[in-house]
Task: structure prediction
Amino acid sequence: MAVKSTAAPVAEPTTSWENPLIPNKKLRELYAAMVELRLLEEHLGNRQRRKSPVHLHRGEEGCLVSTVLSLNPGDLTSESSTGIAIEFLRGAKLKEVLGRTAKSAKRSPTELPAAGDIAARLHVAIGAAIALAALRKGALAVAYIPAGDLGFKQWKPILKLAAAHAAPILFVVLPARASSKPGQLSLVASACGVPGIPVDAADPVALYRVAQESMLRARAGGGPVLMECIPFQLPGKRADDADPIQTMQQFMLPRGVATEAWFQGVASRFAARLKAASE
Result:
């Protein structure tokens, strides 16, 4: 029997000024979604030590959340696996998510099939985006590709195809744990007629702004964009140390967008939801 949390909700902070490009409410939404996604992944990964259906590496939360929050209900997504991280972020019921396994996870109507290899999948995504936009003005597709899974030579014909047809698609290149040529793919994309934008994978605010502007461009008929999420390395730090959730906290606290109590409330309330949905 599910037990509802009795914890009192923490009121959202109020500030005298906020950035009109990203309202404080949206910043809190970004943060909460990242925390929930990480807690969900950890819960599923720890449960009976089975393989989690949420195929997510720590540190990618910002890349996924920043793009999904800009999707419209009918927009399409393309992933290389049958993971359900995107579906959860798009509103799938928590109890349904917890009841699935890697084998039973099914794709939603807005998730494109993983056809053959990655190149074939991206060709499908480009075609689907073009067809969808012809039927529904302003619709688009977002394709997620792990960095390094496709070589530069393989990327070129895909990018040229998307550019030639002004396909309304956003290519989101997820960060690699180690990359000898960070940002190089963005240069390749630009040479193929597709704007390539390298973004700090641990900066959710920058990710959201780039995603929003890129998707607005695609919806207006401006064609495809490639967003390359890169784990920038700070002096004395490893690239793997970059954490989008910590970055968001450090951004929000001094601006009065949120308080420590609010941060704690986000985690505790979702933990209570996880517990209730698991019973």
About this structure: The first helix runs from residue 24 to 46.
